[in-house]
Amino acid sequence: MKASLLIIYTGGTIGMVEDPVDSTLKPFDFSQILSEVPELAKFAVRIDSHTFDPLIDSSDVEPALWVSLAELIRDRYDDYDGFVILHGTDTMAYSASALSFMLDGLTKPVIFTGSQLPIGKPRTDGKENLVSAVEIAAAQDAGGHAMVPEVAICFDASLLRGNRATKISAEDFHAFSSPDWPDLAEAGINIRYNRPAIRYPSTWEPHLKVQTHLDTRVSILKVHPGMTPQVVRNILCGPETRAVILETYGSGNALSKPWFLDIVREADRMGKILVNVTQCKSGTVNMDLYATGNALKQAGVVSGADATTEAALAKLFCLMGMSDNNPWVKETFGKDLRGEISK
Ligand code: ASP
After folding, report:
1. What pLDDT was estimated at residue 276?
2. Which of 10, 13, 89, 278 is catalytic?
């Protein structure tokens, strides 16, 4: 039987065309995308599409779009073997991270893709990305189970776990990387699946649960030389903030000045959720390595291990949306929920 896929088009460069008046890139409709990629007809796959209205540059993505995507996948889950989401690259890693946490019990592929050059341009990377994403989303093993039952990003011949990916280039075709987790697949002459790196469900029985309530009261503080107590206090102790992601140096270090640690302790006493991710491109937080990192741990900061900032943000939105209990959120944040951290 033919595999069936739903391609969900949200916008992004892949479907943009140059406006003749001001030369900026603006989205065009899905049928034009399909007509640019006749190769898709060669797959033994039934493809349906769903187009969001309005189509957006992904810089305009808000959590409401993630909720719409998650609900659409939930509502059409039984009708398709997999889902391909066309999305702008700027916030693709955030959206893929969010969907990975919002979709619990996933047994089918949800593959994000997009491109650096619009699909109508002669040197576009959009065709190859879309064709590979479709092939991967439709791929099943001999038992009829999805090869990649995960939320993933397919870009420049690599398939990356969505909540491990980060955008690394504004102009190279190799725009995404997954520094702390191996690629799930590589598209060469054949698609080579890296099965040990792929996360398989404990059961193939359909039991998709969708978390659509997100609490977005999170801020991010990138630690840097020259921070002032006023700015740090505003971010960590602000009344509207429930959680703060500290993007720290190296293996989870920040300044050891008493004023800084006093503010961290004050935020902890206020019940804020403080988490630690590294601002390095790869590697993990280890708050037992240096006295500066350990001081954060003693002050109540939880380790984000090797989570990307995008994954940490999405995980907090989801966990905080599930519960008002901050100690539970802190404890659960430290657990590996969707392969987003190494243990
Ligand atoms: N600004 C675009 C977007 O994220 C960039 C892209 O798609 O590559 O929608």
Report:
1. 97
2. 13
